[in-house]
Specification:
Two copies of one chain form a homodimer. Helices cover 28% and strands 14% of the residues of chain A. The first copy, chain A, is of the alpha+beta class and 444 residues long. Chain A has a domain of 105 residues: Methane Monooxygenase Hydroxylase, Chain G, domain 1 (Up-down Bundle), CATH 1.20.58. In chain A, the strands form five sheets. Chain A has a seven-stranded antiparallel β-sheet with strand order 5-4-17-16-15-14-13, with helices on both faces. Chain A has a four-stranded antiparallel β-sheet with strand order 1-9-10-6. In chain A, a hairpin with an 8-residue loop joins strand 2 and strand 3. The longest helix of chain A is centred in the last third of the chain and has 19 residues. In chain A, 57% of the residues are buried.
């Protein structure tokens, strides 16, 4: 089997999402990586032993935890590396996830984007450096696999899927009349009046159509991405440190670039700013509100958690860690118009609004070659395909894929060596579509 | 109501249990403290707001988190301040804790140790700076209260109750023949041959009758307590730092003092050394083993967690944080000879051995004026009273009190300003006995 899609993709350096200095270490990484089996974190034995061997110890402060393949351990163990805040599931029993069979999924084949030879579903799991994957069909568990160090009773970094929870919470507050999407951000957070966010509308934040200057040029030590990472780093700041010291301080320094409302620009800072708005409006930080309004009502089987900055601010743009099945439960709730575990968790109109998406023209301006015709609404990625599928996405392959027509939810955690999902979309999106097609055929 | 027991007790500086430098900050604290209501962390609003006011922000690195009254927030939020490792409850539903009434407990009266005027149970809750307390009678929940920032769905520092879990796990391994209590510590952990622990028996570790030099003189910058704290601190070490860098490195530096096996000496380092032995024997660290062998079998309603050092070693001497009801479930399992949630979690002989206690003469040499006739076995405190009560105890008022005759378990989390339990025993131990007496009378 030969694939034409490139193994050496430009490295989309989104590792700042972790709010750390890890990217400094990553900048010197090779662009060829060991494959999924050679990089298996269980085989490599990171942090195993009493004490672990010196070359198997991973640390937060020196960035070793986020080099590849080390990060394959770290994404399932962030709480051992940094302070975190709990997202309680409450104390009741978990909602049942009934199991059933839906035929042979492993042998399903698909043609990767840009390729011309088929690949099996099972092969795609390794190609995508999958750590865990769950498929629900009509709410029942039809497929579940774990790799490396992730287990069902474990929590994995959701990366930018965090944004989707932040956006969904904002949409919920909007539906309750507590948050007006047409009002300016500074109306809710006066401290942001000095920043580019101040005269953006809440809607523009939620759909990431703000015009802000946020450089991700890692070669430039003055790039905003470094200030964001340093601000969010929970470790004590160096004595000579002069920059912003928290997410909130960083957000006030963000400068304008272009006009608001004209194009989709994927910038993590929008989610952090939205998190601030949510905190002001609700009197809860994002972790607390997520627990109260969603997590504790899902019948989640595990608490989730979020990383925090040095003053306890949950990282609304990328700090969530959760169990895989619980992520699937959240997806199933979305598939069921907001209803799950016997409760209407989100009003149906919130879900409908997300599914309907936003402006596809605004989205097209961002130039995602692999996502033609998509849009971004309330921090969800909307495919606008024939099945009406929509997604939550996070760097290194985190995915929650909801296909309403096929009555299917796929939740996946991964640790792909390349941050940007352009590296795994070719072997992910058509694979998800192949399962959807299979499940639709099963139904007939 | 006048009490004769002193409000100004010598401060037993056991805060090193946290493995931090917090005691430096504490050293200049007053010896008069605001009372429970004036120090209520919910009222004081620590870490509330977006951002919190500057004078309400608590940090790990500067020790502010462990000053009083700030620590009343911190003990319910350690994971926001430092890296931690999960102790999974597994994924099944929690075991039921049925509720029932057992008469009016709040109005029960008792005479504090060293006092001559009665106090009510309800008054004792404030006197002890209680954060949460649960009473089980015959396994049913007959009393439950929370104060400050602790909630049922929250986890509180168990402090040295951690030791009791470590000791119980060791006893379990002994019962399975995996650990021989008569063998030398160095037989299991050769690295400890150079230390005072090397030629101690595992039994001496488990009962804390080792002869080790472990000064807790905070005025002495060379005291072992500082080295222990610095070694366990998960933050990056200062550039000029020369000392041990992990719990394991610290343990190898512990020097002998006196002979092993002659007297009870309460020294946290014994628990850490036992944790190392356990890790070697089981191939699991204490957090993993605790999850596998106890926590996931209790039907706990929440995961617990442990603080870790810079290489992920769980702090076996004091790092556990757990839900209050789950601590009570553990106590109920002990009351039921190791059986709980439909499972024999510990062999009955392990529990019997603990209840029988150890040498009361060895214990008496330690000079605990308020604990006459007690002993210490497998890191449990055994009262040898007429009810056969035994306890797990942690600084600042953490308590798990099991009274077999009264068929009663009391689990309490607290944030008393004085670390040493001599400060709260006068209003705790007779209060527990008063409830036991009440429940025995109810039965008749």
């Amino acid at each position: 089997m030969k694939l034409r899609w490139p193994r050496e993709l430009p490295k989309v350096r989104l590792c700042f999402l972790l709010g750390t200095m890890a990217c400094a270490a990553q900048a010197s990484e090779p662009t060829h990586f060991p494959d999924a089996q050679a990089s298996d974190p269980a085989t490599l034995g990171w942090m195993v032993g009493s004490p672990p061997p010196a070359d198997r110890i991973l640390r937060f402060e020196d960035g070793s935890y986020f080099r590849f393949p080390q990060m394959r351990w770290s994404v399932a163990n962030f709480r051992q590396l940094m302070p975190t805040v709990n997202v309680s599931r409450g104390l009741a029993g978990p909602s049942m996830l009934e199991r059933t069979s839906s035929g042979e999924i492993d042998a399903l084949t698909f043609v990767p984007l840009g390729g011309d030879e088929p690949m099996t579903w099972q092969q795609s799991l390794l190609a995508n450096y999958t750590d865990g994957i769950v498929i629900l069909h009509r709410g029942k568990l039809v497929y579940e696999r774990y790799f490396g160090v992730l287990k069902p009773e474990g929590q994995h970094a959701a990366m930018s899927i965090t944004k989707t929870f932040t956006g969904t919470l904002a949409a919920l507050l909007v539906s309750e009349g507590k948050l007006d999407p047409e009002r300016m951000v500074a109306d809710y957070v006066p401290e942001l009046a000095v920043s580019a966010f101040g005269n953006a509308s809440v809607r523009q934040l939620m759909d990431m159509t703000t015009g802000i200057h946020f450089s991700e040029d890692y070669a430039d030590p003055k790039a905003e991405v470094w200030a964001h990472a340093a601000a969010g780093n929970p470790l004590p700041k160096p004595a000579d440190y002069q920059g912003p010291r928290t997410y909130y301080e960083f957000l006030q320094t963000v400068k304008p670039q272009g006009r608001h409302g004209e194009a989709f620009h994927y910038r993590t800072a929008n989610s952090d700013a939205l998190g601030w708005v949510i905190a002001r409006v609700s009197g809860r930080n994002v972790a607390q509100l997520l627990s109260e309004r969603i997590w504790s009502r899902l019948g989640a089987e595990q608490d989730a958690y979020m990383s925090v900055d040095s003053i306890g601010t949950p990282f609304a743009g990328g700090g969530l860690n959760a169990g895989l099945r619980d992520l699937a439960r959240f997806g199933e709730m979305m598939r069921n118009e907001g209803r799950y575990n016997g409760t209407q968790i989100l009003p149906p109109e919130v879900v409908t609004d997300i599914r309907n998406g936003a402006s596809r023209e605004d989205f097209a301006k961002a130039g995602y070659r692999l996502l033609p015709g998509w849009s971004y609404r309330n921090m969800w990625w909307v495919t606008h395909n024939e099945h009406g599928a929509f997604m939550a996405r996070g760097v290194h392959g985190q995915a929650l894929y909801i296909d309403p027509l096929a009555e299917m939810v796929i939740a996946r955690f991964a640790s792909h060596p390349v941050a940007g999902n352009a590296a795994n979309d070719p072997t992910s999106l058509p694979a998800f579509e192949a399962v959807a097609k299979h499940l639709l055929e099963q139904r007939q």
